[in-house]
Amino acid sequence: MEKIHATTIIAIRHNGQVAIGGDGQATMGNYVAKSNVKKIRKLQEGKILTGFAGSTADAFTLLERFEEKLNSYGGNMKRAAIELAKDWRMDRYLRKLEAMLIAVNKEDLLLLSGTGDVIEPDHDVCAIGSGSMYAQSAALALKKHAPHLTAEEMVRESLTIAADICIYTNHNLVIEKL
C-alpha cells in the first residue's frame, strides 16, 4: 500500500507579522486521496503555529512529540525543538519518521527536519513539502519586490503560485496568523 503524502506548507515573518499556510491535498501514489486536509495547527493556546508535511502518521507523531516538549519546557519553542531533535537522534522509532515540521511564533521561525535537525531559515521564510520550492521562491520575490504586503497576503499568494505549478499542491488553503 502506498503512503499518503505530498503537500506545501509555508511560513513567513514580515514586518512584525507572522503567517503560516498550507494546501489541502493528500496524494496517494499518482492520485489525490483527499483535497481538504488541514495541515496547520495552533499550539500553546494559539501562541505557536505549526505546519507539517510527510507521511501522515509520522507527521502526527512528530507534532504530538513536539507538543509534549512544549508542555515540558513551559512553551519555550526553541528549547522544545532542540530537545525533540535530541530525542529524534537517539530514539530508533523517531529516526524512522518521514515528516517535517515548521513551527513559528512572534520571535522564532524553525524547521524541524526529517534528520533531527533544527534550522532557523534565512529571510524569515520557510517552506516544506512537494511544492515548497515554488512557494519559497514566490515568497522571497514578494518580500523583496512587494514589501507592502502583509505576511498573510504573502503566504496566500505564494501558495497560490505553488498550486498553479505543482501537481501535488491544490488551492484549498488554510492560513493562520499571529
- CATH topology-level name of the domain at 4-55 and 101-111 and 118-177: Glutamine Phosphoribosylpyrophosphate, subunit 1, domain 1
Beta-strand proportion: 25-35%
Number of strands: 12
CATH H-level name of the domain at 4-55 and 101-111 and 118-177... which superfamily?
Aminohydrolase, N-terminal nucleophile (Ntn) domain
**Strand line-up across the major sheet:** 6-7-8-9-10
Instruction: Write down the CATH class of the domain at 4-55 and 101-111 and 118-177.
Output: Alpha Beta
Largest sheet: 5 strands, antiparallel
Which ranges are low-confidence, i.e. pLDDT below 50, for 5 or more consecutive residues? Answer: none
Rounded average pLDDT: 91
Query: Structural class of the helix and strand makeup?
Result: alpha+beta
Helicity level: 25-40%
The coarse silhouette is globular
| Radius of gyration, whole Å | 15 Å
Distance between the termini: 39 Å
Element-by-element helix/strand order = EEEEEEEHHHEEEEHHE
- Reported CATH architecture of the domain at 4-55 and 101-111 and 118-177: 4-Layer Sandwich
Number of helices: 5
Structural commentary:
This protein has 178 residues and is an alpha+beta fold. The chain has a domain at 4-55 and 101-111 and 118-177: Aminohydrolase, N-terminal nucleophile (Ntn) domain (Glutamine Phosphoribosylpyrophosphate, subunit 1, domain 1, 4-Layer Sandwich), CATH 3.60.20. The chain has five helices and twelve strands. Helix 4 (132-145) crosses helix 5 (151-165). It starts with a strand and ends with a strand. The model has no long low-confidence stretch (mean pLDDT 91).
